[in-house]
Automatic annotation (TrEMBL):
Domain MmgE/PrpD C-terminal: 285-469
Source species: Streptomyces halstedii
Residue ranges occupied by any MmgE/PrpD N-terminal domain in the UniProt entry: 23-262
InterPro entries reported for this sequence: MmgE/PrpD_sf, MmgE/PrpD_sf_1, MmgE/PrpD_sf_2, MmgE_PrpD, MmgE_PrpD_C, MmgE_PrpD_N
UniProt name for this protein: MmgE/PrpD family protein
Domain of life: Bacteria
UniProt xrefs under Pfam families: MmgE_PrpD_C, MmgE_PrpD_N
Protein family per UniProt: Belongs to the PrpD family.
Amino acid sequence: MIEHHVRVHPSADRLPREDQLAWKLASVATGTEELDAGSTAMAVNRVIDNASVAVASLLRRPVAVARAQATAHRTAAPGASVFGSRSRVSPEWAAWANGTAVRELDFHDTYLAADYSHPGDNIPPLLAVAQHTGRTGADLLRGIIAAYEIHVALVKGICLHEHRIDHVAHLSAATAGGLGALLRLPTETVYQAVQQAVHTTTATRQSRKGEISSWKAYAPAFASKAAIEAVDRAMRGETSPSPVYEGEDGFLAWMLDGPDSDYTVLLPEPGEPRRAILDTYTKEHSAEYQAQAIIDLARRLREKAGPLDQVRSIVLHTSHHTHHVIGSGANDPQKYDPTASRETLDHSVPYIFAVALEDGTWHHERSYAPDRARRPGTVELWQKITTVEDPAWTRRYHDPDPERRAFGGRAVITLADGTVVEDELALADAHPAGARPFDRPAYTGKFRTLAEGVVTRSAQDAFLDSAARLAELSAADLGGLFPAVDTEAVAAFDASLPKGLF
């Protein structure tokens, strides 16, 4: 890997484009050629994972709204497919609808480092553009692996959240790079597209604060739509605000650490295998990733804790990120509100721990049902749960050694009689270094579970066969990556919603 130092430069420096981060990201994209076998296999897993959560969310309101907006933009062949519809639409709108479907349940892959990310959000726009432009499965794989490489590098090197900037700013750069690799565009074109994408998708983290709304599901889809449009403009010869990262009025200077910004981004050398996708991990449970190990810990503690009406207090000792983003350190009263939105509850580790402790399981719908959240015993237990930052867990969260890095915590349960029950878990069971790492059978099992009642068994088999053969698929075969569903039932649900402009 090569260390690239990124800092602010005054305009008078006339920083050569080859020294700019956007150019270096573009070079990673356009230099992605021979693909690592492990990375290719993992990319297939993530295509399966995305489809799993997309089909499970088809009848959820934000997904239906995005789909209705997209299908109002039908296009002449070829166009791109939309989950739950037979329509072919313009690729940026397909990315919008499919990206929302993938993100809605907060149930697909993640990478945590200096910042947060869901790298699987790159796949919907890449698949849409591949279909629209007649690219093959091999082309799509190249784009996915390049996008993951860029996304992981940015998340490792540049923290956005400490400045309350939403993590989709890194996503849009990665998507633009992935599209460049998919389409084999010149480095100059990708460079311009990356800069346009970053410039237009920098937003605040209010989308993940307080009463969290459905925009949380839309945010990555919006970024991917913007990235497609940026690539289109760059292909037509349009230029961008430059240098978007290093400029004296640019991203680093005014959104991040300011004029004294100094970041290090690690990128692969020319010809070095693109293996960043192997650093990422998916979710076994439909909740914020930092709650994954906490759910597994609650299940493990269930018998030890005894009757839950005897609990006096529960304190979760965990990392800075977990405490301040999904814990009581966020100082969001909504995280303790039984009437809060689902989007808020899946970012409330006190709620999640209470329900997992009571039920011994987690379900993407039942665990968030309004009557479940308002159950008196649950509310009473929930209010007794707080989080604290433990410096040891914060250090492990950021540890450069993968063998030490951890995203869990320690639970201390104090009972009414003064008895203390405690246990800790560093990693979710499904993490690559966890008790039951996710493998292809686990991804397949997740798909079949979430597709039950939505996708027939034969259609499930057809999708899984297409995904497994992704490297061999022709352009015409890419439609097989959209599991067949009852589109009439989906259309009936869509028709029940209020109409908009389109």
